[in-house]
């Protein structure tokens, strides 16, 4: 078998030190393992390299400036040219798209250039789907649809995500994978004193339910005036951060809510362990990677009642309908006042996450890549 040489289109607006999305973290974790398994990966990404700033360079980065980032057509053409040059120079035998969407920018620059390069060099295309965006079902961009249907394999991070994409786009070559966690990162940090009553962890955005959580916290402090919430994670823009601050001030929560901003992985674990419970009131999730990390930190979890979250964590969390502020406040209060239920959920969660392994995910993905190359 020829050595696996992958051309990956990893064009993301994420910048380590500001925020890191779950899709980006997944690729960084998997690429570092694939390198140890002998895979050569050549990755088109915007400066600065996420792998290098994250601290584990699992691939050869082709850094690209963001000069045309706001012009979708020019940017797509530029990425096609870069992809052709990289594929030819490095004799790549598969084209891989680990994240079809480019948060904060246009959604063309990963999939369409990869599709064109795949056609030109007659190399198999593999795309990873993380979750269905609200705009996806009505998006009939014929080139993107052609790319999805041309792909030799489409990898979905959960069965719920696979079902969504089958329904939305009629895709048949869908393989369900998963996500993982580095349990050693959590076990190496001892339990901390509980400073925060609850923590939100993830990309701070309206989609993740941050404003719903703040409104619920306003209700909660009527029963627990000193209850303290931590918002942990980066933001895509200063505008979003300013919006959060304004809402916190307008709700009179300045003494009850702390915004940590982006922190290192080690500090994130420490802050999770400094909290009593974890809350994720998202309106959309394809898997829920931060939930795995919260459970690994020993936190009982309150989650939105979404298909992917129910699929992965059905018996280990409390579920509330998205955007239901009153029920969310009631669920948080109920859990905070029930230490025994907190203990039981935490134990179930820690047992559950033992089955989530990045090594297992990476090996499964490698098997998929090898199969499409051989075929």
SSE arrangement:
Elements: E1 5-9, H1 22-36, E2 40-46, H2 50-54, E3 60-64, H3 72-90, E4 94-97, H4 111-121, E5 125-129, H5 142-150, E6 153-156, H6 159-169, E7 174-176, H7 183-187, E8 196-201, H8 210-220, E9 229-232, H9 238-250, E10 257-261, H10 265-273, E11 275-280, H11 289-296, E12 301-304, H12 307-313, E13 317-320, H13 325-336, H14 339-352, H15 358-374
Parallel strand pairs: 1-2, 1-4, 2-3, 4-5, 5-6, 6-7, 8-9, 8-11, 9-10, 11-12, 12-13
Helix pairs in contact: 1-15, 3-4, 4-5, 8-13
Question: Overview of this structure, please?
Answer:
This protein is α/β, with parallel strands linked by helices. The protein folds into two domains: 5-180 and 357-374, Glycogen Phosphorylase B (Rossmann fold, 3-Layer(aba) Sandwich), CATH 3.40.50; 183-355, 3-Layer(aba) Sandwich (Rossmann fold), CATH 3.40.50.2000. The chain contains 15 helices and 13 strands. A seven-stranded parallel sheet has the order 3-2-1-4-5-6-7, with helices on both faces. The protein has a six-stranded parallel sheet with strand order 10-9-8-11-12-13, sandwiched between helices. Helix 1 (22-36) crosses helix 15 (358-374), helix 3 (72-90) crosses helix 4 (111-121) and helix 8 (210-220) packs across helix 13. The longest helix is centred in the N-terminal third of the chain and has 19 residues, at 72-90. The chain is globular, with a radius of gyration of 21 Å.
């Amino acid at each position: 078998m020829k050595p696996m040489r992958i051309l990956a289109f990893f064009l993301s607006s994420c910048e380590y030190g500001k925020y890191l999305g779950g899709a980006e973290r997944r690729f960084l974790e998997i690429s570092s393992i694939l390198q140890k398994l002998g895979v050569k990966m050549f990755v088109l990404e915007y400066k600065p390299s996420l792998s290098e700033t994250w601290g584990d360079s699992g691939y050869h980065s082709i850094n690209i400036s963001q000069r045309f980032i706001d012009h979708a057509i020019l940017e797509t053409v530029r990425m096609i040219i870069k992809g052709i040059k990289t594929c030819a120079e490095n004799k790549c035998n598969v084209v891989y798209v680990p994240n079809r969407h480019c948060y904060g920018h246009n959604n063309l620059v990963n999939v369409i250039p990869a599709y064109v390069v795949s056609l030109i060099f007659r190399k198999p295309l593999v795309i990873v789907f993380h979750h269905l965006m609200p705009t996806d079902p009505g998006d009939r961009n014929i080139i993107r649809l052609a790319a999805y249907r041309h792909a030799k394999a489409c990898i979905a991070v959960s069965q719920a995500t696979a079902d969504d994409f089958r329904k939305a786009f009629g895709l048949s070559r869908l393989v369900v994978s998963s996500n993982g966690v580095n349990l050693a990162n959590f076990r190496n940090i001892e339990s901390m004193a509980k400073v925060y009553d609850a923590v939100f962890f993830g990309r701070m955005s309206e989609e993740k339910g941050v404003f719903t959580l703040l409104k619920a916290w306003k209700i909660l402090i009527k029963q627990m005036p000193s209850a303290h919430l931590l918002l942990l994670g980066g933001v895509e823009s200063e505008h979003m951060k300013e919006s959060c601050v304004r809402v916190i001030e307008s709700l009179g929560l300045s003494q009850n809510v702390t915004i940590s901003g982006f922190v290192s992985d080690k500090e994130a674990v420490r802050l999770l362990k400094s909290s009593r419970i974890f809350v994720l009131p998202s309106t959309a999730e394809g898997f829920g990677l931060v939930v795995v990390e919260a459970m690994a930190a020993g936190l009982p979890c309150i989650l939105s009642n979404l298909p992917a979250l129910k699929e992965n964590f059905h018996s280990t969390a409390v579920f509330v309908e998205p955007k239901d502020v009153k029920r969310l406040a009631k669920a948080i209060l109920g859990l905070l006042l029930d230490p025994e239920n907190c203990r039981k959920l935490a134990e179930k969660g820690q047992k559950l996450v033992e089955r989530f392994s990045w090594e297992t995910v990476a090996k499964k993905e490698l098997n998929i890549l090898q199969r499409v190359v051989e075929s």
